[in-house]
Give the backbone structure.
Amino acid sequence: MKRILVTGGAGFIGSHLCKRLVADGNDVLCIDNYYTGSKENVWSLIGNPHFEIIRHDVIQPFWCEVDEIYNLACPASPIHYQNDPIQTTKTAIFGVYNMCGLARRTHAKILHASTSEVYGDPAIHPQPETYWGNVNPVGIRSCYDEGKRCAESLMMDYHRLHGVRTKLIRIFNTYGPNMQAYDGRVITNFVVSALKGEDITIYGDGQQTRSFQYVDDLIEGMIRMMDTEDSFTGPVNIGNPGEFTMLELAELVLKLTGSKSKLVFMPLPQDDPRQRKPDISLAKSKLNWEPKVPLEEGLKRVIAYFEGRKPNY
């Protein structure tokens, strides 16, 4: 049994990770400040002797004895990270600083959840880990994009200077149960609007693309990355290379929900990437990993999740 700390463990991805780690027979400590997370997401674990949850903000130091750390704490949707951009940057940077300090003290292995947003509006397609990105450092998304880029730098400096066993993954668009209905992510926007019969808003001409992975595939990739040899730090792209335009996604949601919602078009937000697709060659070779859940199957599960929450999404 390993002692594992999950920061942001009551969030969308963190809650799925906590459940998987407990199911695998580990002792899991979850910390979260509930800015975007919720106790409801981990309610099924409350009372389990191998799970503990503490309200804590990773901007502040945290002390415990652990074998592994999964650092997921940071708002990840534009609505949330742009609401308080200074707090977002502090969470990304001070959170990694504090968790790397904890990993150094306890000799723990630490995995940091970075993001495909480090590639910005990419000039290379699909995006390999060797691509340095095309990010606006002063735009409205830079609190998240540049915060995550700086966090990656801190991780590697702790590895090079102090021998901390670091693991870096770059997460591409992920979806699944426990997402918040109004978090500003495209899949939740489309699904909730369709279920309520409201207009579905598409930004730009709808030809911009994204790649969507189901959360179970991501969790499997994270655990496999943590289990790699210490000499392999990453970064590694974890995402589904299936690429869809926003129009294709909207039409699929309408088909699966049977909704009569109409599509309406709005101007494209500032610095919104035109293309996003991971090159997962490294994940295949190093982790023996690739996504298993196709978009249509994953959407059916998400639609069923939100249908089960009516009318209080």
